[in-house]
Structures
1.
Amino acid sequence: MRKKGRLIVDGNEIWNFDLCNAVLIKHDNGDIGYRFSENVVLSISYRKGYAKQEDNDKSIGRVNDTIIVHLRGCGGGKDTWFIRASIMLPTFSHEGDKTYTRTANQPQTLSVLFAYDNTSPEQRIEEYKAIHDRTIEKFNNGEELEFNEHCIISQMIPTIGKDFYWGNEVLKENRYWDAIVYLENVYHALRESWLRSDITDEDKRMFYQTCYIIGYCYAEMCLYEKALFYLEIVRPLNNITYNIEYINCLVNSRDIRAIYTIHNELNQLAQLKENEITDSVIYYHNFLRRRRAYTFVDMGRLDDAEEAFKEMLDEDANKEYAKGELEYIQELKKRKNTKI
C-alpha cells in the first residue's frame, strides 16, 4: 500500500491519536497486519509559550518546536502485535538556551516497546478464571503450588491476584510498560494494606516480588532511578536474585555506590563458613567479581580491571566473559595512548 502523508490540526484529534492504528490494520477476516509495511513516522509540531499570548508575540520563550516519533512493527502473532516507538525531542530552536548543559544540548531520545492485544476483556477474564479455578483445585487436592499460584490464591480481593497474574504474563513477552501498569496496581494495594497493618506473610512475599519485577522492568528500559526506588525496597532481604538486579542497576547506571556495594557483598561472602557455601553463593560470588572488574573499567582503572579479569581466565564460569573484556581493555589502552 502506498504511503500518504496526513495533516492533523485539531487538538482533540491529536490527543486521541491511536498509535497502534497508525501501524496496524485489521482485515475483514479478523487477521491483523501492518498498514504501511513496518514503519511510520510522525512529526508533531507545537508552540512553546503561554497559550493566551497573541500570535504576533515574538518573545524568546515563544518558539515552535517539533517531536519526532518513529513507529516500527516488531512482529507478533494471533493475539499480540508489537510496536517499537522511538521518540526524539530535537534541540530547542533558541540557540542561546543553556538550560540543559548536562546533556550538551543533544537531542533527547526514548525508545519504548508496546503491544496491541487483540483479545477482548471477556477472553482475558475467562483465561484468568480458568487459571484461578485450576489453582484452587490443586490446593484442594493437596498438590504443591508454585509461588505465583500462592499469590493468586491468597488474595481476598480478586483484582489484585488478576493484575499480578497478567503482569507476569505480559512480562514473558518483554512487554515492560504493560507489566508495570498491572503490577503498580498490586504495589499500591498491598502497600496500603501494609500501612494499615493488615497484611499477611503471603501478601508480604507478593509485595516484595512485585517490587522486584517493577524494578526489573524499569531497569530493562534504562530508567534506572525509577528502578532503584523499587529495588531498594527489597534490598534488605538479602535475596541473591534481588541483589543481582540491584547491583546490575547500580553498575549499568554508573552509580557511584556500585563499587562500594560490590565490595561490601564480597566481604560478607568471605565471612561465610564452608557449610554455608552453596551453588547459589558460588554463582553470586562469580557475578560480583565480574561486576567489580567491569566497574573498574567504567572508573578508568584499566590496570586493576585487567588484573581482575586475568584471574578469571582459568575459571569455566568466567573465562569467556573475561576474554572479551580483556580485548576491550586493550582497545581502550590503545585509544588512550593514541591521544597522548
Note: The longest helix spans residues 319-339.
2.
Amino acid sequence: MSEVEIVSFGYLHGEPPAAHLTIDLRHHFRDPHVSPELRYMTADDEPVRTAVLNTPGITALVEAAAASVNAFASGPSAGVVTVADGCAGGRHRAPTFARALADRLTAAGHSVVVRHRDLAKAVVQR
C-alpha cells in the first residue's frame, strides 16, 4: 500500500496545513470543549476519545476518509497521501479522528505517520 501522513490541527491556531484531503470537524460534530469536565483534557485522555468516537457520524466519516485515501493511493502518481483534519483548537476532535483514521489505514496495510500540530497548545479561551 502507500504512505500516508495525517496531520491534526486547530483552525484557531492558524491556517490548515497543505493536504490532498482536508476534513473540517468544527461544524457537524459536538465539541468536547463545551463540557467543563473535558475542556482541559486532550485526545490523550480516554473520556475525550470516548466522547468523540461515540459522536454520531464520526465512524462513518473515518470510513469515508479511508476510502478517499485509498482512491488517492490508487492513482498513477506515487508519493505520500496527506490528510489534514481540523477542529477548533486541535486538542479533542481532530487528534482523536486522526488516530482513528490511522488505525483504520494501518489495518488496511498503509504505512501511516500521524502528527498533531496543535495538541500540546493551551486551551483556546472562547
Note: The beta strands are 3-10, 21-24, 81-87, 111-116.
3.
Amino acid sequence: MGQQHRRTGGAFAAFAAVGLMAVAAGCSDSGAAADAHGAGDPGDAVRRTADSLVRAGSSKASTSMEMASGGTRVTIRGRGVYDFGRQRGRFEVVLPQDPAGDDGHRPITELLTAGALYMKNRGAGVPADKWVRIETRSLSDGNLVTGGATDPLAAAELLRGAREVTYVGDERVGGVEVRHYRGVADIRRAAAAASAGQRGALAAAAGKGFSRKGVPFDVYLDERGRARKMRQQFKVADANVASTTLLYGFGAPAEVRLPADKDIFAGKIAEQ
C-alpha cells in the first residue's frame, strides 16, 4: 500500500482523534468448567477469554457504544461478523439521530483488522465509493472507542489484564447459560500479554488514551469460556463511554475482504 494511504499524522490524526464520537455528538474449557462449580481463580477464566474466542473461530456480533458528556447522551449501534483467527471483522455502524431529529445518516461500513480500521460512508468530504484507512496504533485509544464499535477481539484481549475479578453469579444471555464476572482491566498488563495483532493498538491506549486506574468491565462466559457479552467502561477526555459487545452464532461465515489500494481515499478529511 502506498505511503499516502498509510499516513497517520495531519488530517488523518485529527480526524481519527475525534472519530465517530464527534459525528454522533453533532448528529469446553476444563478450567472454565471448574470455575463454574466454584473452584479455581475467576481471574484466570476471564484472562483466557481471547484464547477461547480464537478457538471458536468466528461469530456474529452486535455492539452498542453509549457516550455521556455534559448532560448529553448518545448511542452508536453496530452489527456484523468477526473472524477471530484472522482478526478481521465487518460491521454496519448506525449513528443516532441529530438533535433536530434527522436520521438521514447512512450506516457506516467498518472493517476491523489487526492494526487498521477501514471506514466507508464516513462523510467529511470522502467520496461515497472510497474507504478511509487509519492505523489503530496511531490512535490515542487504540480504536477501543474511536470507531464507534469496539473490535470484539480487542475487547477480549483487554481482559488479559483483568484484576480484582469477582464471580457475580449465573445468568442467561441470549438464552444461553453464562457465568457473570466483574473486575478492572489493566491496559498496560493487557498490552504486554496481547497477541501480536492487537499488541500495538493496546500499547497505544496504555500509553496515551486512558486513565491508569484501569477499565471496569463485566463479562459473561459460556460453558466453553467464550464471551457472550462484554461491557467495558472508558473515560475519554470529559466523556464517559460504555461499550457493550454481544457475541452469538459462533461458527457463522465471516469473510472479510480488505479494500484495494485504488479504493482508499488519499485526500484531506474535512473538519466537522
Note: Helices lie at 3-6, 10-26, 30-36, 42-47, 49-56, 152-158, 187-193, 196-209.
4.
Amino acid sequence: MECNRCDAEAVMHAAYSGAHLCETHFRESVEKRVRRRVRRDDLVPREASPENPRTWVIGLSGGKDSVVLTKILHETFAEDPRIELVGLTIHEGIAGYRDESLDACVDLTADLGIRHEVVSYEEEFGVRMDEVVEDDPENMAACAYCGVFRRDVLSRYAEELDADLLLTGHNLDDEAQTALMNVLEGDVSQIAKHFDASLGPLSEREEQAEFVPRAKPLRDVPEKEVALYAHLRELPAHIAECPHSSEAYRGEIQQLLYGLEENHPGTRHSILSGYEELASIVAERYRDDGDGADLRECVECGSTTTRERCRKCSLLEALA
C-alpha cells in the first residue's frame, strides 16, 4: 500500500483517520501532533524569553513513551533558549527491569546533551519495590504503592529543580483508559482533579495549582504509533512489562478499548475529547461551589495533602 502523501511504501495505517503513511510522513504526523498539543495548551508562556527561561522536567522512565516525548521536545526546543529540558528518572528498586530502562535513559540524555537526574525509592524512602511486593502489609497491588511513591518523588523533585512544568509521557491509550475508569467508578472528584492537574491552558493551571503544573504532550498519539515511532527512529527505549504490574481493572479496560477501537475506529479520541469537556465542567462546578477538598500539610513530611498524614507516609509507616 502506498502512502497517501507520496509514492513511498506505507509503514502504517491509521484506521481512525483512514491514512496510510510512509516512514517520513508518519514521523512528521507524530511530531506535528505533539507540537500542536504544546501550542494548544499554551505550554510556552508569552513572557518566556532567553532572559526569563522556563525549566521543563520530563518524567523519563526509559520506556517508549517518555523516550519519544523527550526526543521530540529536544528537537523542537534544542535551539530555543527559552526552554531547558531536564530528564528525571526514578529507580523503584526493581532488579533487572529498571536497571535496563535506566541504561536507556542514560544513553538518550547523553546523546541529546540534556541534564539528567536519577533518584531512587531506596534513597528517598528506604524501600525497594521488590521488597515491598514481598511484604505488602496493606494487601494492595504493587502499582498502588508505586504510584503513591512515584507521584511524591516527581512532585518534590520538580519543585527542587525549580521546574515551571512537569511533563509525562502518557499517550492516547493511557488517557482514554483513565477517563473510562474514572467515569465507570463514578469518581467525580478525580475527574475534577485530573482537569486541574493536566488539562486546559497552562496560565489557568498556574494560578490554581498547589503543585508544579503538569502536561502530557503525547496524549493525542495512540500507543502503537508511539512504539512504531521509537522503532523507526531507533531510539534506546526499554520496551518491557514491569514484573510487578498487576492492575487487573486497568487491564480489563485496556482490552475493552482495544475491541471498541477495532470495531469503531476513533473511539479513544472520542472518549478523550468528551472527557476533557466533562472534566472542565466538573472542575468549574467544584471551584464555584467550594466543594474542593481542603489542603493541608502532612504532619510527617510537610507534603500537601487532604489528610492529617499523607498517603505516602501512611504506607511507609505500614512498611516499617
Note: The chain has 13 helices and nine strands.
